[in-house]
From TrEMBL:
UniProt key word Transport: no
Bilayer-crossing regions: 55-75, 87-107, 119-142
Organism: Phialocephala subalpina
Superkingdom, natural source: Eukaryota
Keywords: Membrane, Transmembrane, Transmembrane helix
Protein name, UniProt field: DUF7704 domain-containing protein
DUF7704 domain residues: 3-144
The keyword Transmembrane belongs to this UniProt entry's keyword annotation: yes
């Protein structure tokens, strides 16, 4: 496992995030109808088209891909530049993820935080939490990267 991340971002990015992504990957395969309906709070689960099911399954597959890429990158490299660039890519993706969620939700549902369902909390709340940790890491608020372990030949 990469040992250059300080403890807080290391836990968040290498443990919490992959587990969250795996949970997000499983959800559409358990019930694509529920997964689609829960994207915006207040919609009842109803039958979906084959196209909508395909999109839900593909999104689940992408979540699984993201978990595997994160694990592959962060558990195999000790190169600070690789880790930093990976975190920057995630940081940019966080902005897009929250922006699209907010754009598609109507304003009343967006500002009614008490009415958010678990998927909305994941799409906005958890993503903003991850974004905050990434921002703090990128600005060095958790301290400097640790030195990679030296290889003994």
């Amino acid at each position: 496992m990469t040992s250059i991340l300080p403890p807080v971002p290391k836990f968040v990015i290498t443990v919490f995030e992959p587990l969250s992504l795996i949970a997000g990957a499983v959800a559409p395969f358990v019930s694509p109808e529920w997964f689609v309906a829960e994207q915006i709070p207040g919609f009842a689960t109803q039958p979906i088209t084959a196209q909508t099911a395909m999109v839900a399954y593909q999104l689940g597959n992408i979540y699984l891909l993201l978990a595997m890429v994160g694990i592959a990158v962060l558990y195999t490299t000790t190169e600070p530049k690789v880790v930093r660039n990976y975190v920057i890519a995630l940081w940019i993706a966080d902005i897009g993820h929250v922006a699209v969620t907010c754009w598609v939700m109507d304003y009343e549902k967006l500002v009614n935080v008490a009415g958010w369902n678990p998927l909305t909390w994941g799409n906005i709340g958890v993503t903003l939490g991850l974004f905050s940790v990434r921002t703090a890491y990128l600005f060095g608020l958790f301290g400097p990267d640790r030195k990679p372990p030296s290889k003994i030949l």
